[in-house]
Amino acid sequence: MQITAPRAFRQAILAEVLNPKTALFFLAFLPQFVVPENGYVVAQLTILGVLFALIGFASTIIYSVAAGGLGNFSRCNPTVLRWQGKVVGGIYRPLGVRLALQERVGREVCQRVHRERCRHSHRSLPLGAGRSTAGRT
Q1: What is the pLDDT at residue 2?
Q2: Residue in 132, 105, 130 with CA at minimum distance from that of residue 120
Q3: Which residue has the higher pLDDT, 113 or 30?
Q4: What is the band of 120 on the pLDDT scale with cuts at 50, 70, 90?
Q5: CA-CA distance, 111 to 82, in Å (whole number)?
Q6: pLDDT tens digit sequence for 59-72
Q7: What distances in angstroms separate CA 66 from CA 76, 81, 103, 112, one per listed residue?
Q8: DSSP element (H, E) containing 126
Q9: How far apart are CA 75 and CA 82, in angstroms?
Q10: How confident is the prediction for the chain on average, in pLDDT?
């Protein structure tokens, strides 16, 4: 399903406005910069909120323009594309090998640790101390 840019923008704004984490962040972060002796607290909070939004907007624009330029450069340069594939492959190969070995090695380690714990716990307990007496009459 294709979504239009204006609809995606509206959905993002709605999701952000209804996100309780945003409100909690502002309630926890901004009051430490408000000085009641300097005047209206609501005005100070409003100014800080607007400044936060403007700085966030400016940084988003800078990052998106830089990412767009970098994306155009990498798409138009075959050498970059070739090295990008090699670097990504060099990262994913060891991760895949680690993942493939992780379960087998992890299971062996768990079994070894379990055997060690059982062996040590049975040695330190007096005869019959580890047995449950529940259900015996």
Answers
A1: 87
A2: 130
A3: 30
A4: low
A5: 44
A6: 999 999 999 999 88
A7: 16, 18, 41, 51
A8: none
A9: 10
A10: 82
- Residue 83's identity, in one-letter code, is W
SS3 assignment for 15-54: HHHCCHHHHHHHHHHHHHHCCHHHCCHHHHHHHHHHHHHH
d(CA 137, CA 5): 74
pLDDT at 124 exceeding the cut of 70: no
Closest CA to 107 of 115, 118, 117: 115
Q: Which residue has the tokens 């990262």?
A: 91
Q: Which tokens hold the place of 54? A: 């403007």
Residue type, 23: A
Cβ burial 109-120 (10 Å sphere, 16+ → b, else e): eeeeeeeeeeee
**Residue 48 burial (C-beta neighbours within 10 Å; 0-12, 13-18, 19+):** middle
Amino acid identity of 8? A
Q: Taking CA 136 as the corner, what is the angle to CA 133 and CA 137, rounded to the nearest 5 degrees?
A: 130
